[in-house]
Amino acid sequence: MKHILVPTDFSENAYRALIYATKLFQKNPCTIHILHSFEAQASKLTSRVDIGKSEKVMDNLYDEADKKCEEVRQRLIKDTSGCGHKFDVISTAMSLSRAMNRICAQRNVDLVIMGTKGQTGAKEVILGSNTENVIKRIKKIPVLAIPLQAEFSPLSKVAFATSFRQSFNPSNLNELIFLVKLHKSNVEVLYVREGDSLSPDQRQNMESLLNHLSDIDVEVVWLEDETEKTKAIVDYIEREQVDMLSLIYYKHNIIKRLFRESVVKKIGRHPATPYLVIPAAR
Prior knowledge:
With 282 residues, this protein is α/β, with parallel strands linked by helices. It has two domains: 3-146, 3-Layer(aba) Sandwich (Rossmann fold); 157-279, 3-Layer(aba) Sandwich (Rossmann fold), CATH 3.40.50.620. 41% of the residues lie in helices and 21% in strands. A ten-stranded mixed beta sheet has the order 3-2-1-4-5-10-9-6-7-8, sandwiched between helices. Helix 4 packs across helix 5. The radius of gyration is 20 Å and the shape is elongated. It starts with a strand and ends with a strand. Residues 1-147 form the UspA domain.
C-alpha cells in the first residue's frame, strides 16, 4: 500500500490538496498521513511566558492541533466515502520540513502532496513559503504541488521538462512512472531547443531516459527557444492542456543555471496545473 504525506495548515487550499490526493489514487487505495506543524505558534507563544508556564502552553497547542486534525480527518472521511483510503493524523511542534523528513523515513512515504498557497493566499507569493521550503529541503521524496485553482482530472497527458544535461537515475522516475501507469497517461518529454542538435552527452542522456520509460507511451517534444525557457514550457502546458508537469530538482541552484531563472518559481505561476518536483538522487 502506498503512503502519501499531505501537510495541512487548515486552509481550504490544503484541504483541496487532500481531496486531490484521494482522487489521484482512487484506483490504488493508500494510507494518507495528514500532518500539521504548529512550530510558528509554539515559538511565538512560549517566548512570552516563563518556563513554568510554557509546558501548559504546549499542551494547549497540541490539544488544539489534534482537535483540528481530527476534524479534517472526519470531514475527509465524509467527503470521500467508500474511497478505500486510510487516514492518519499527526500534529507536531517541529518545523514542517524537519517533521516531514522524519515521517517520510519512519513511515516509508512514497509521495508528498501539498497545496501551493497557505492561509494568507497573498497574490505576490508564487509557491507559498511552506511549499518552496519543502521542495528545497525534502530528502528523496517527490513533491506534488497543487495550485489553488487546480481541479482533479485523470492524468491523460503528463509533461516532463528536461535539458538532457544530467544523467537520469532510474530511482528518480519511480513515482512518475507509477502515476503514469496508474492513469494510463501519455508522457511528453519537453526540451527547449538550445541549438540545431544535441551534444553527444545530451543525446546519451535522452536515450537513457527513453530507455527508462520504454514501457509507457512517450514522445519527445522540441520547443523553440524563447526569451525565457520557462515561458516556452508554461505556454506549452497551457496550450496543450497538460494535466501534470514534472521535473527533477537539482540542488545547489543548478535549476537556476539550467533555465537562467528559478524554474520552480516560474512554473508555479501557472495557476491550474499540478507539478511534480522530483529531488535528484544523490
